[in-house]
Design a protein that fits this description.
- The chain has one domain (about 30-375): MFS general substrate transporter like domains (Growth Hormone, Chain: A).
- It contains 15 helices and 2 strands.
- It has helices spanning about 5-20, 30-50, 55-60, 65-95, 95-120, 125-155, 160-185, 190-210, 240-245, 245-275, 280-310, 310-330, 335-350, 355-360, 370-375, and strands at about 225-230, 235-240.
- The protein has a two-stranded antiparallel sheet with strand order 1-2.
- Helix 4 (about 65-95) crosses helix 6 (about 125-155), helix 7 packs antiparallel against helix 14 and helix 11 runs antiparallel to helix 12.
- The chain is globular.
């Protein structure tokens, strides 16, 4: 890379950072880096499931029906939308590592703010602000994690993105099991979330100590939404605006939007749908959410082999059909047993959409950050 005319100042800055760091990126093996990125994804799943599994309890504590609860959950979505709109600039300016530190702190502050608002203040406003801050941090945290994931995937020269997102799903499974147990024994939302977040803080500190700079994907200190690129197409600049003008990138974004909707609607509503729609108990609602994230985990862990064997397009066609069948059956089924089966089919179908979309967006390392943020 040193023979490229633009690389000198960038790499000299990187070497200066490495000399000032207790552990240089050269001392971190690719294997350690990979395991650390898995930890970053695991923490994200734990942090989200800590409050998602308690949605029925949150609604009960704040005395919210489905409509006002939907508005409360919308604050997280608004925060995430605002965050991801600026994520390209943030990641390109700070680098993925610093971005992950900053956004993880926002997630912890927001999540604990939600817990305080629910358990102690019984305030919808405080809970909404907390959820908004959580969304603000989590969306850009995901972009940073995906940029790191794409970089380590290229370093390994193997497709590993579904496995990384599988670790996110493992985090949600662990979180749902813990949440179900906490719900069954009557632990408040605050003490449940605080205990999970203490574990998350320990994990993210250990993981981020062993990550590398993502190299050519992002150049910290670059002015504005611009990556310096050099490829067969020639040397130049590639901005967020350029990524928005690419038909392939926009279509990938629409695809991921649909799959994220299939996944996100389950995350937000499965537990409450089981309690309000099917008449199940809160603990059964938590089990239903756990079943969905278990299906997501299964799909992601098995998906890598299928993708390598059959390719992205064929696998995703089958996956999308499964997601539609599962979601449709869950909506119309009059029996909770069939509804539970539908949840598993739904989760299995929705599992690969997000990681496959991110991996496809990051195919070109020189344009990865801009494209990932757009998608």
């Amino acid at each position: 890379m040193s023979d490229r005319p633009w690389s000198g100042s960038i790499h000299s800055q990187a070497h200066q950072r490495e000399r000032s760091s207790p552990i240089s990126s050269h001392q971190i093996t690719t294997k350690s880096w990979f395991y650390s990125v898995l930890g970053i994804y695991l923490v994200s799943g734990l942090s989200i499931s800590a409050w998602l599994v308690r949605v029925p309890a949150i609604a009960q504590e704040l005395n919210l029906s489905a409509g006002p609860l939907g508005l409360l959950l919308l604050t997280q979505t608004v925060g995430a939308f605002l965050s991801v709109s600026a994520s390209g600039m943030v990641v390109m300016k700070l680098g993925a590592q610093k971005t992950l530190w900053l956004t993880f702190a926002l997630m912890m502050v927001g999540g604990l703010g939600l817990a305080v608002g629910v358990s102690f203040l019984h305030s919808v406003l405080v809970a909404g602000i907390g959820l908004g801050l959580f969304g603000l941090g989590q969306a850009t945290y995901s972009v940073g994690a995906n940029v790191q994931g794409a970089a380590v995937e290229r370093a390994l020269k193997k497709q590993r993105m579904p496995l990384m997102h599988g670790c996110f799903s493992i985090g949600t499974v662990i979180g749902s099991i813990v949440g179900t147990a906490m719900t069954a024994v009557g632990v408040s939302v605050f003490w449940h979330m605080l205990s999970v977040y203490i574990v998350a803080i320990i994990l993210v500190v250990l993981s981020l100590r062993n990550t590398r700079h993502e190299g050519e994907d992002i150049h910290p200190g670059t002015t504005g939404l611009m990556a310096i690129v050099s490829s067969d197409e020639g040397q130049g600049t590639f901005t967020i605006r350029h990524a928005w003008s690419e038909k392939r990138t926009v279509l990938l974004g629409i695809f991921v939007l649909g799959m994220a909707l299939a996944e996100g609607s389950a995350n937000d509503w499965v537990a409450l749908a089981l309690t309000d729609g099917y008449g199940a108990s809160a603990s059964v609602g938590a089990v239903g959410y756990g079943l969905f994230v278990a299906a997501m985990t299964t799909g992601r862990l098995l998906g890598t082999g299928l993708l390598n064997m059959y390719g992205r397009v064929a696998v995703m066609r089958v996956a999308c059909i499964l997601a539609v069948i599962g979601l449709g059956t869950f909506v119309v089924s009059p029996w909770i047993g069939l509804g539970m089966v539908a949840i598993f089919v739904w989760g299995t179908g929705a599992a690969l959409g997000f990681p496959v979309g991110m991996s496809a967006a990051a195919d070109d390392p020189f344009r990865a950050s801009a494209r990932v943020s757009v998608v």
